[in-house]
Amino acid sequence: MSKRSKSPCIDVCTYTGPMGWCVGCGLTRSESKGWRGMKPYDRTAILKQLKRRQVELRTLNLDAPECSD
Predict the structure, then answer these.
(1) What is the DSSP string of 18-48?
(2) What is the pTM of this model?
(3) Are 20 and 53 in contact (CB under 8 A)?
(4) What pLDDT sits at residue 61?
């Protein structure tokens, strides 16, 4: 039985920035929608890109909004 990779989504889902990345997790809309059907290789490739995307979003000051609970 293969281990399924958990989605990096954190349920913020605000897509913005130059590439349309989610400010919460860094995925694009199409990556978010297709995550479950992706092959493990594709998921791994995207997960490697997410750290770079998050850094870029921070430099553009497009972080996820702070929770006010």
Answers:
(1) TTTEETTT---HHHHHHGGGS-HHHHHHHHH
(2) 0.73
(3) no
(4) 73
